[in-house]
Amino acid sequence: MEKNINDTERIVSIAAAGALIGFGIKRRDTLGFVLGLAGGLLAYRGATGHSHVYQAAGISTRPSPNPRSPYKGWFSGKAHVTHSITINRSVSDLYHFWRNFENLPVFMKHLESVSSIDETRSHWKSKAPMGYTVEWDAEVTSEIENKRIGWRSLEGADIANSGVVEFLPTEDRGTILKVVMTYEAPAGRLGSLAAKLFGEEPGQQVAEDLRRFKSLMETDSIMKVEGQPSGRAADALPVIIAARDIVH
To answer: 192-200 long-range CB contacts below 8 Å, 24 or more apart?
Structure first.
């Protein structure tokens, strides 16, 4: 059989197959049987690199000399995330805490570490689905103190990304924190759908991270978020104290 799906899609298919088969075994009912069957078909698809559905439709996602393929958008391209939250803390406090990027893993549970290289560049390491990690270097592209921080990943990043975080004052001395992010989906729209299945979709991540940030800055502790086994207040204590005692 001729292969008609690309390597990234094969990996996604195998990963999704494992999840569906696991769900099916756990349920042990009609729906479980259907899920297990679907998982088996995906496993076959990933193992062989061939899709009978694609064959019937005349589709192939293998590397093609035709950059205008109508199916290209499903397997490559950018994804956009926008989220905002109101925090009862001053713009200055939030800005200075966030600008020290090494603080971010305290409330961003998918980040393992951020290390500053110099005033504008830093090295990031993040968890990825199925136990993998991804790393990249990033640089600050625009900055207005107490207003905004813009960034982009540098060449060679495992996942290219860019964005901006804005700090907007409210009338009651609080702050609206707005994050706008663009990232290069490893498998385009299909990759985003698979990531949602594993709870790793960036839109979900950003929303949860901002809720934890709000809890940290308002109460000096991080609330438990659904799907997270426990808060990180104990581990974050030194940074929490630093956040509370920021001097400008």
So the answer is: 192/79, 194/12, 194/15, 194/16, 194/129, 195/129, 197/16, 197/19, 198/15, 198/19, 198/129, 198/130, 199/227, 200/110, 200/128, 200/129
Q: List where CATH 3.30.530.20 sits in the chain.
A: 76-244
* Start-to-end CA span in the chain (Å): 66
| Backbone φ/ψ region at 22: left (φ over 0), alpha (ψ -120 to 50), beta | alpha
Where are the alpha helices (H) located in the chain, listed in sequence order? 7-27, 30-48, 52-57, 91-99, 188-197, 202-219, 233-244
pLDDT digits (tens, 9 = 90+) for 65-100: 444 444 444 445 567 889 999 999 999 999 999 999
Q: Return the structure tokens found at 23.
A: 């769900």
Greater confidence (198 vs 101) lies with 101
Plot region of 110 (φ>0 → left; ψ -120 to 50 → alpha; else → beta): alpha
Which CATH architecture does the domain made up of 76-244 adopt?
2-Layer Sandwich (3.30)
pLDDT > 70: what percent of the chain? 68
Count of CB atoms within 10 A of residue 75's CB? 20
pLDDT at 46: 74
| Ordered alpha helix ranges (H), 58-99 | 91-99
